[in-house]
Structure formats: structure tokens, C-alpha cells
Amino acid sequence: MKPDWYAELPQLPAKLPPSVVALALQFVALLLVVSGLHFADIPSNPLVFALLCGSIAAGLGHLVGLARWWLPIQFLFAPALVLVLNLHIPPEFFLAAFIVMLVVYWTTFRSQVPLYLSSKRVWITLEELLPAGHFTFMDIGSGLGGVLTHLARIRPDGQYYGVENAPLPYLLSKLRIHLGSYTNCHVRWESMWSSDLALYDIVFAYLSPVPMEQLWRKAQKEMKPGSLFISNSFAVPQHPPQYSITLDDLHHSSLHIWHM
Ligand SMILES: C[S@@+](CC[C@H](N)C(=O)[O-])C[C@H]1O[C@@H](n2cnc3c(N)ncnc32)[C@H](O)[C@@H]1O
Questions:
Q1: 68 shares its domain with 164
Q2: Confidence band for 17, pLDDT divided at 50, 70 and 90
């Protein structure tokens, strides 16, 4: 339950990614606790200080409507910083970890589409959805290229394309295609928003709930009549698929299918 005065609070712009909101709230909490130190007799123990920051950040997160799973992260962020600093880990370790996360996840903080991979069951079910004869297949957000290379091996009569905007997955998928000599497989370091979906008979997406509405509008505008749009796991709000296939993989994935 939010208190009555909540409605009077200035609302954060809806378009700000939750990670940016969460970080901003950490700074607000820090400022509030630092200014509180001037007026109240708060013990100067770093862990108590961090727990206060965490409690305020979590409370503010709840008020501005961050998803529930963000709240423990908000609460634990500052205390975890204090505890990890006490381990005296060399700063180079954090720089290296940051760089690895950056090249793997790139703009995930904004797109809210992280890297995780379709299961082998999904690959195999996709085989059955491919049309007879020559066709073009696009995996938007192609990750490590597993979907593309699997299908290219099983159905060499198709042309397979992928776009991936995170540098390390893109490079690894290029390497995978090169080492496997898949001449019918092509990935580009590009955003899915700038690729023209009119060029493909099948467009496959495994993203997150966040971009699905915008992606649907793009697919409707660009995809050819008779082409297939397939989404692994994530539905399009207000546009039910013509049919869905539930798979018996670890996550009980569903493939949602639309004939455009
Ligand atoms: C959930 S993974 C799916 C990987 C692969 N398609 C699969 O099914 O195994 C989503 C991928 O989309 C990529 N991605 C996110 N936003 C993107 C964008 N705007 N353009 C291209 N790729 C994007 C992410 O970097 C990530 O690798």
C-alpha cells in the first residue's frame, strides 16, 4: 500500500531504465543519510551507515514503483559494497570484471534484454517450423549464434542471418560460424531496430517482455505477408499468437507463432 501523499510526489519519467532509477535512488539515499548525520546521532559504523542507505534506497524504490525483485538488491547494495571493500580485493579485479560484463551485456541496462540462450529443444522444434525449399531466417539478438549454426547444419538449404549488438557474443558467434565453415550463416554487429525484417521468411526472437510491443509494431510494418514471426517465451501484449508450442525443456519454454 502506498501512502496518500505518494500521489503528490513528482514521478520519475516512465522511460528511464529501472537500473538507472535504482542507481539514482542509491545516491538519493546516500545524500539523505549523510545529511541525517548532521542532525542525528547516527553511529559512524560503516555497516550501520550502509544498512541505513540500503533501507532508504529500498523504501524509495518501492515508492517509485521499481519491480519487487529490485528491492532486495536496493537494500543489499551498499552493505555488500562495505563488506567487499573489507576483503581488500585489488581494484584491477573490479575493472576486469566490469570490462567483461560490459562486452557481454553491453546496453542491457537500457534494453533490458540480457544474454541467455535458447535450449536445444527450442533449436529442434524450430527445425520443424522451417518451410520446404529455399528460405531466409533471421535471429534478432542472435547471442552466441547457437540457433543459427544448428539450423544451418540441419537445413543447409536456408540462408541464416543474425544481428547482435553486444560485442563479445557477436565476436564469438562470428568465430563459431567461421570455425564451422557455415557459408549460409551471417551475423552482423547491429541493433535489431535498424535491421529490415522485410528480407526474411522467418523472424525468430528470444528477448524479454520489455521490447515485445515495439518489436510487434516493427514486425507488422515490415514483415512480408505469409512470413512467420516466432517468439521464444515472450508474448506480445494484446496480440495473442495464432498458436503456441510448449516444450519440455528446463524452463518449459513456449514458442509463440504468428503468420503475418
Ligand atoms: C536472450 S538472448 C537470445 C540469444 C539467442 N537468440 C538464443 O535464442 O539463444 C538475447 C540477445 O539479444 C541481444 N540484444 C539485446 N538487444 C539487442 C538489440 N537492440 N539489437 C541486437 N541484439 C540485441 C542481447 O545482447 C542478447 O545476446
A1: no
A2: confident
Helices and strands, number each (H, E), in the chain = 9, 7
Mutate which of 110, 115, 218, 255 for ligand 1? The one with the most ligand atoms within 8 Å of its CB, which is 115
How many angstroms separate the CA atoms of 160 and 11, rounded?
44
Looking at the fold, whether 186 and 82 belong to one and the same domain comes out as: no
Q: Is residue 57 part of a domain?
A: yes
Task: Evaluate the CA torsion angle 99, 115, 226, 240 in order and state its sign.
Answer: negative
Asked if residue 25 is part of any domain, the answer here is: yes
Give pLDDT tens digits for 115-143: 999 999 999 999 999 999 899 999 999 99
Quick check: helix, strand or coil at residue 245?
Answer: strand
User: Kind and range of the H or E element at 20?
Assistant: helix 18-39
Q: Measuring from each residue's beta carbon to the nearest atom of ligand 1, which residues come in under 6 Å?
A: 111, 113, 115-118, 139, 141-143, 146-147, 163-166, 169, 191-193, 206-207
Q: What is the pTM of this model?
A: 0.84
- State whether 82 and 131 are in the same domain: no
